[in-house]
Amino acid sequence: MGAKVSVDESVRVVIVGGGFAGIAAASQLKSFGIPFLLVDMRDAFHHNVAALRASVESGFARKTFISYKETFQDNFKQGKVVGINLQTQLVTLESNEELPFSHLIIATGSNGPFPGKFNKVIPKDHAIQLYEDLVKEIQKAKHVVVVGGGSTGVEMAAEVKTDYPEKEVTLIHSKVALADVQLQPSVRKTVKEILLRKGVRLILAQKVTNLNQVTPNVAQENIELQLEKNSEVVTCDLVLCCTGFNISSSSYSSAFGDKMAEDGSLKVNEYLQVEGHANVYAVGDCAFINEPKMAYNAGIHARVAATNVRNSLIGKSLKTYIPGAVSMLLSMGRNDGVGQFNGFYLGSFFMIMYKSGDIFVSKSWKDMGQVMPR
Ligand SMILES: Cc1cc2nc3c(=O)[nH]c(=O)nc-3n(C[C@H](O)[C@H](O)[C@H](O)COP(=O)(O)OP(=O)(O)OC[C@H]3O[C@@H](n4cnc5c(N)ncnc54)[C@H](O)[C@@H]3O)c2cc1C
């Protein structure tokens, strides 16, 4: 991964957030022999890319939570970061503990509704149990409605229909085209075709107006969803929410208020340094970069930032991050999928490999197999 460097004891990199970006930065710094502390509010890395499969298949969730301590031992600290003091170079935890840093890598990512994201701060085994509980709720329901037809929503609808073809599955989306706007029209069209082929009912260009009165993820008889147009009501017995992802900015908003973009992410330069701060980097979903928010990109950012920490310590020039072309893959159940990689359309053959058996095993021909050293 990289040659070890020798540094004096004033060097300590604090990485805030142990998602795809944070663990990649930690692994890279470890390989350089640079002292670091990885801080996350939870006790385990959540492989949320596989969270939707874990919602329909019992026994899968346990593969998606990986204990930080097992991998990073004393280089990991569990705690919620509530403040950053740039003058004193201290990170403050909710417990009031202060952690000194010489360099900071901010990787707090994004949050959103369960099951796509896991938001609670509870022990790993309880988190796994919540996914197992959701599998049972989905099994109980006869008619499942997925609200939100972005990339998460289309994957969710396809996962439910693949494992439970006898269930009625409806996807309600506020726009006409499904999946992410960065994707080619042909990819978005294929997503629609796959869903229709699987028997998912699509309600497009419609918003649910009473979502805040519905308890998601719990099977109940006769849940009524009101639609904005035509006063139509959809009756179902389970609602899964795939809307509303936000950048997790609470840890840095007071320190970097003036460096935040409208969505709460941090403005960075081409070296991924937060504007005006040579020893602070932002990577992953919380970095303001014109490209899709993806685990794959988060890992690349992290390796660039860790390399730049090393290069700055040994007097080498810094590495530039060039935003990649869109490389997005959508798994539409275990036998179907579609995506695009640097402008190329990818069909279902590729997707059968992707996410099929174990998480990330053959996600791409590049370096996506190794998510976390175990
Ligand atoms: C359902 C779903 C499927 C997806 N599928 C794919 C896919 O197939 N391929 C792909 O490339 N991308 C996929 N993505 C996108 C991908 O998950 C994100 O881009 C990726 O998680 C970003 O990684 P990150 O490390 O920046 O942030 P996150 O994964 O959000 O991790 C942030 C971490 O920071 C921690 N944290 C936040 N605030 C604090 C704080 N104040 N103190 C301490 N810790 C904190 C959190 O606990 C978390 O562990 C998918 C997303 C979803 C929701």
Automatic annotation (TrEMBL):
Residues in domain FAD/NAD(P)-binding? 12-299
Enumerate the cofactors the protein uses: 6-hydroxy-FAD
What does it catalyze? menadione + NADH + H(+) = menadiol + NAD(+); menaquinone-4 + NADH + H(+) = menaquinol-4 + NAD(+); ubiquinone-10 + NADH + H(+) = ubiquinol-10 + NAD(+); phylloquinone + NADH + H(+) = phylloquinol + NAD(+)
Q: Which InterPro entries match?
A: FAD/NAD-bd_sf, FAD/NAD-binding_dom
Its keywords, alphabetically, are: FAD, Flavoprotein, Oxidoreductase
- Share an example GO biological-process annotation for this protein: negative regulation of ferroptosis
Q: Which GO terms describe its molecular function?
A: electron-transferring-flavoprotein dehydrogenase activity; flavin adenine dinucleotide binding
Among SUPFAM superfamilies, the record links this protein to:
FAD/NAD(P)-binding domain (SSF51905)
Against Pfam families, the record matches this protein to:
Pyr_redox_2
Q: Which GO CC terms are listed, alphabetically?
A: cytoplasm; mitochondrial membrane
* PANTHER family xrefs: APOPTOSIS-INDUCING FACTOR 1, FERROPTOSIS SUPPRESSOR PROTEIN 1
Q: Briefly state the protein's biological role.
A: Putative FAD-dependent oxidoreductase.
Give the family from UniProt. Answer: Belongs to the FAD-dependent oxidoreductase family.
Q: What is this protein called?
A: Ferroptosis suppressor protein 1
Q: What organism does this protein naturally occur in?
A: Xenopus laevis
